Amino acid sequence: MTSFKALVATKGETGPNLAFTEFAESDLMDGDVTVRVTHSTVNYKDGLALTGRAPVIRRWPMIPGIDFAGRVEISEHPDFKPGDLVILNGWGTGETHLGAYAQKSRVKGDWLVPLPEGLNPDEAMAIGTAGYTAMLCVLALEKHGLKPSDGPVVVTGAAGGVGSVAVALLAKAGWHVIASTGRPEEAEYLKGLGAAEIIDRAELSAPGRPLGKERWIAGVDAVGSHTLANLLSMTKYGGAIAACGLAQGMDLPASVAPFILRGVALLGIDSVMCPKPRRLKAWARLAADLDRERLALMTTRIPLSEVIETGRAIVDGKVRGRVVVEIG
User: Which residue, 29, 155, 212, 295, has most beta carbons within 10 Å?
Assistant: First the structure.
């Protein structure tokens, strides 16, 4: 096809102007691999981009969407050939490079990961950047030497995308998972993913003490701000928190007490520019470790035409788990 369907964002005074249009293939950006996109997803970051609530988009006009799965059509990269199934997460896609909410994308082959054996493109985007980030958090906690026998693990924003996958992964690995959520109606959903305890996010979201009662040895935090500060203050001696998000805020109103009195570690997780060897390891572990029934439990599907309203809903905290976008 010389043109294809795409969602295009142009710069407006109060936020992006969004419109579905026919996009010329000749207007795609430079890259050595052209992919026929079959599936994408809506992450929290996508919601920020679509609503303009954060300056995610830094090039205009832009096709939003930070990750996709699809089939290679044209390749000048030695690692890929036409017909290969591939995944892309991050690398500025949907921010500075034309993104995933379109039927085609042209990118650098070094950005792509082969679809792992045992996963199909739909499942890969049910995982998406959120789930891949959750696995990076799990890998970081393991690298720090932490294991289920050391104590409980806490997951914040547990009903969201990162949180849902983190709960499922950690529970299957044998951890006692404490799920923090502001949506008490999702308690049964979280227990279905493997959570052993549910706590209200209000326990963690207000300003707290520099050092609190020790409650967990590890944590996955997608929230930031006071929540992350409280997680650190309640982490047991020698424990660690993997931080990957900012749903509450970018600030960290914490003290040094947990670090110098309990030896607690704060592990920063970046999914956008993560080196390829670590990506390959994360996706291999996701294919091997993530329970498919639990993945299905957390996943809904929408057509590309519903991406805009879903983006608004996800930043308003109205989306549970993961959303697959069927590009068509």
Answer: 155
Residue 50 C-alpha from the chain's centroid:
16
Q: Map 264-312 to HEC letters.
A: CEEEECCCCCCCHHHHHHHHHHHHHHCCHHHHHHCEEEEEHHHHHHHHH
DSSP string, 230-276: HHHHTEEEEEEEEE---SSBS-----SHHHHHS--EEEE---SS--H
- The CATH architecture of the domain made up of 3-115+298-326 is Alpha-Beta Complex (3.90)
Residue 199 confidence (pLDDT) above 90: yes
Please state the pTM of the whole predicted model: 0.95
Per-residue pLDDT tens over the stretch 241-262: 999 999 999 999 999 999 999 9
Mean pLDDT of the chain: 97
Residues 129-268, CATH architecture: 3-Layer(aba) Sandwich (3.40)
For residue 325, the one-letter residue type is V
170 in Cβ contact with 162 (< 8 Å): no
